């Protein structure tokens, strides 16, 4: 076991070796030893306690403590329990789960075995977005290898524990990434999110207790069992254990996925790891957690990239999709790209989101094309404020938060567009760059 200061990468350490994607390569790196340890030396409650100790927060967006979520599953319920792995990865700017599935599929399978064991599930589903067909093929190949080696199926590793894992392909809708929309879709229905409570841990798939976790969350579980929860916790910040896969895109020299300790400063991720803003330009803005997260100005990026610090800074870590914008970005056009996505992906179930998201898009487009009057920015803030917190799922918030933050933080650009029917950035630079 390495001391925390010696650890350079966890999940990504598998990505350096292409052979690690195969069962033989995975076993050569100690693969499935954590599952063996959990199933033969630990009781399910011990596994949950270890994960609680690790301060493992869900990596799908909300950052809910994983061990705590697992402890909500009623163990005495006579109903079957299910594990569902969320591999929908639909938030723009997020592209980490696909690497986990492509380059370290057995890590996800091993994490699923340990998690399913901890919650007394004997069936697990990996719900994968339709566009990730290459990942699906790789996962199914890895599952076949795991079945053949006795890591899945009946009497896993010679114990009395049985588990089957199925890969379920979605059709590619953002709303199907929301956990209850996902469950509806998995049940063969349209992915309309459910009203919570009840939460899936008690009433989930087929109305049975269900744990839903993101791919990355599950992929960290084998490390926790192998090295201990306290060790994992010590890698990160106070309530944010371990490492994190940060996705950096937009106007940087080296876009990519960087696995770093939780709480690495946002500026360090951008400047040191992603090589800084491209073409020698200055930083203008950063969206730290996927396109639904409130935007930060360049002077706001000296913040640890963890769930609590970014929330305190008025944004969120979300899915850690860090989108970097340089000084030549038109913020009105950038907001149009984002608003277009949420208007298109609103499932239509809740009126504020169904009507409000396209309305906001239309207003940004009016500003962009010189059709707006000076009342628009305030009206947009009012509309966004009326969507916020008033929908069944957080897609409404995802449509509202970018508008609130872009308009409030870059108001002069919106006003300039309205008054002059031209882009201020284009006036100054001649050309605008946008991270779309
Ligand atoms: C509109 C919407 C889309 C979402 N899309 C995803 C997604 O693609 N992948 C994901 O893991 N979580 C997504 N989530 C979060 C899930 O609802 C849920 O919180 C997560 O899967 C729980 O896993 P975790 O605790 O490991 O993060 C989305 C949430 C919302 C509101």
Q: What is the topological layout?
A:
Elements: H1 23-28, H2 33-41, H3 44-53, H4 66-71, E1 81-87, H5 97-103, H6 105-119, E2 121-128, H7 133-148, E3 164-169, H8 179-186, E4 210-214, H9 215-227, H10 229-235, E5 243-250, E6 256-261, H11 266-273, E7 283-287, E8 296-297, H12 307-312, E9 321-326, H13 331-345, H14 351-368, H15 376-387, H16 395-409, H17 411-420, H18 424-429
Helix pairs in contact: 2-6, 2-9, 3-6, 3-10, 5-6, 5-7, 6-9, 9-10, 13-14, 13-16, 14-15, 14-16, 15-16
This protein binds flavin mononucleotide (FMN).
Strand runs, count: 9
Provide the CATH superfamily of the largest domain.
Answer: NADH-ubiquinone oxidoreductase 51kDa subunit
C-alpha-based Rg, rounded: 22 Å
SS class: alpha/beta
Give the SSE string.
HHHHEHHEHEHEHHEEHEEHEHHHHHH
The helix fraction, in percent, is 40-55%
Average pLDDT reading:
96
Q: What's the arrangement of strands in the largest beta sheet?
A: 6-5-9-7-8
**Second-tier CATH architecture of the largest domain:** 3-Layer(aba) Sandwich
> Any idea of the CATH topology of the largest domain?
Rossmann fold
CATH class of the largest domain: Alpha Beta
Low-confidence stretches: none
In angstroms, what separates the terminal alpha carbons? Answer: 42 Å
The hetero molecules present are:
flavin mononucleotide
- Count of separate DSSP helical elements: 18
